[in-house]
Amino acid sequence: MDLYAEIILDHYQNPHHAGALVQPTISARDSNPLCGDRLQLDLRLDESGRICEVGFKGEGCAISQASASMLTDELIGKTLVEAEKLSNEDMHAMIQVPLSPARVKCALLSLSTLKKGILHYKISQSKN
Ligand code: ZN
After folding, report:
1. Dist CA 94 CA 7 (whole Å)
2. pLDDT for the residue numbered 36
3. pTM of model > 0.85
């Protein structure tokens, strides 16, 4: 097995920031029905608007869960504006292994869940 496949397996078996947060600032869920991946991503913002705590829980294939674990590492310390700028290319750069078209959706599930959460948060804030 090559190094990057090992890194993915390690994130899958020992996910970083695993588990939902209590009363998160932002919480979003999404799924990838093609593969059966499900994800919940929770974020807490500190007073300066930076992400100070992240938690996720989910089920599904190794790529979907490992990419979520990798993304949570990236998110700590970022503002929502910075988090929103994370792109599909950034996810591919984190994962590093070549992905088949079917697996790309698995890899991007955590990013789409993040963007959905930020969007809903902004909408809720604009109502106040
Ligand atoms: Zn998958």
Report:
1. 10
2. 97
3. yes
